Amino acid sequence: MSDGLRARIRAGDREAFAELYESYARTVYNHAFRLTGDCSVAEEVMGDTFLDAWRTRERLEPGDGTLKPWLLGVATNKARNANRGIGRRLAFLARRPAPAPVADFADEAAARIDDTRRLAAVRTVFGRLRRGEQEVLALCVWSGLDYAQAAEAMGIPVGTVRSRLSRARARLRKLADQRLAEEKKEPPHRRGEVQREAAFAALPFQEFQEDPR
């Protein structure tokens, strides 16, 4: 983006705001979708986010830093208001039909199937995390904010982001392991359904163990 974008937006420059939209619309939509699990709600959240950002542009602090934390902070609040039942919304993703896997039974393919089974388990249990844990994972892991930026977006101290993210990762890992153990006890026909669902689960959730730096 061009230099001085923040100052231009604060001054009400519509071309500057259009530049901001072009740069971050997809990022805001993806973040909203992860928190709501519904594409139509995510689109509404994205629109409301940029509308609110324009209305409150004069509150922007001066400087040259990225506006991504500001936008994602607005989007997080909009998503929270749009859907208080985040867990129920996200749960449908694990049940969404997915294409049948391509027939490939090489050792490498078997390893990929194991990975996607775990991703399916992660997606299934993600909605069982606390709201704050879901939000910090969405901001730090999938939207790529560092600790300071996530703290700015959520309006909480950096130390809280660190501890919340650590707890969220540990909890998500534990719940995913439990889910995988449960799947082993399910009837063969149900295990087949889980394998088909796994293809859809292989989305950005694969990064849930990585540091946001």
TrEMBL record:
It comes from Streptomyces violaceusniger. This is Siderophore-interacting protein. SUPFAM superfamilies: Sigma2 domain of RNA polymerase sigma factors, Sigma3 and sigma4 domains of RNA polymerase sigma factors. One of its GO terms (molecular function) is DNA binding. Residues 20-85 form the RNA polymerase sigma-70 region domain. The keyword Transcription regulation applies. Belongs to the sigma-70 factor family. ECF subfamily. Keywords: Sigma factor, Transcription, Transcription regulation. NCBIfam families: sigma70-ECF (TIGR02937). Pfam families: Sigma70_r2, Sigma70_r4_2. Residues 121-172 form the RNA polymerase sigma factor 70 region 4 type domain. One of its GO terms (biological process) is DNA-templated transcription initiation.
